[in-house]
Amino acid sequence: MLDNNYIVGLVDGEGSFNVRINTHKRRRAKVELKFSLKLRHNDKEILDELQQFFGCGNVYIQRDKRERHALCYRYEVQNRKEIIEKIIPFFIENPPRIQSRKRDFALFKEIVHLAQQEPLNIEKLTALKSQMHWGLAVYGKTVRTVETP
C-alpha cells in the first residue's frame, strides 16, 4: 500500500494539476479540472494503487507515436466533486514539496474555489491559469484558454 510521503514524491516528480477554460460562444463558459500522473507501462501497478488509495479516478493507456517514446499509462481524476472532496484535501494535508508543483497546487486550489462561484470570472480564472506550469516557457510552450466558435 502506498503511503502519503510516497504519493507526494511521486506527484512532485510525475504529477500535474491542470485547468482548461472553455469559452464556447454558443454555450456558457466551462472550467475543466484535472489531476493526473503518467508512468511507463511497466509501472502501471503503481497507478492502480494510486486509484485505490484515492478511491476515484481512472487509469488509461496512453500510446505515444513519437519515436523513442515508451508506452505509458495515465492516472486521471477529472470529476469536480472527487477533486474537491478527495484530491484537494489530501494535498492540503500533504503539500507538494517541489516549489513549482507547490505553486501549481495553490493556483489549482484557488481556481477550483473560483470555478464554484457564479458568474464565472473568466478574466481572473485565465490570469491564475496563466501562472501555472512554470516549466513550459523553457520549451517555448504556453498555457492558453481554449476558445471555440
If strands are numbered along the chain, what order do they take across the biggest sheet?
3-4-2-1-5
Kindly estimate the percentage of residues that lie in beta strands according to DSSP. Answer: 15-25%
The average pLDDT value, as a whole number, equals 87
Number of strands: 5
What features would you describe in this structure?
The protein has 149 residues and is of the alpha+beta class. It has one domain: Homing endonucleases (Endonuclease I-creI, Roll). Helix content is 42%, strand content 23%. It has helices at 4-14, 44-54, 80-93, 99-115, 122-130; strands spanning 15-24, 30-40, 58-62, 72-77, 146-148. Strands 3-4-2-1-5 form a 5-stranded mixed β-sheet. The longest helix has 17 residues, at 99-115. The radius of gyration is 16 Å and the shape is globular. The relative contact order is 0.19. Residues 136-141 and 143-149 have low confidence and may be disordered.
Quick structural gist:
The chain has 149 residues and is an alpha+beta fold. Helices cover 42% and strands 23% of the residues. A 5-stranded mixed β-sheet has the order 3-4-2-1-5.
Write the layout of secondary structure elements.
Layout: H1 4-14, E1 15-24, E2 30-40, H2 44-54, E3 58-62, E4 72-77, H3 80-93, H4 99-115, H5 122-130, E5 146-148
Parallel strand pairs: 1-5
Antiparallel strand pairs: 1-2, 2-4, 3-4
Features:
alpha+beta, 5 strands, globular
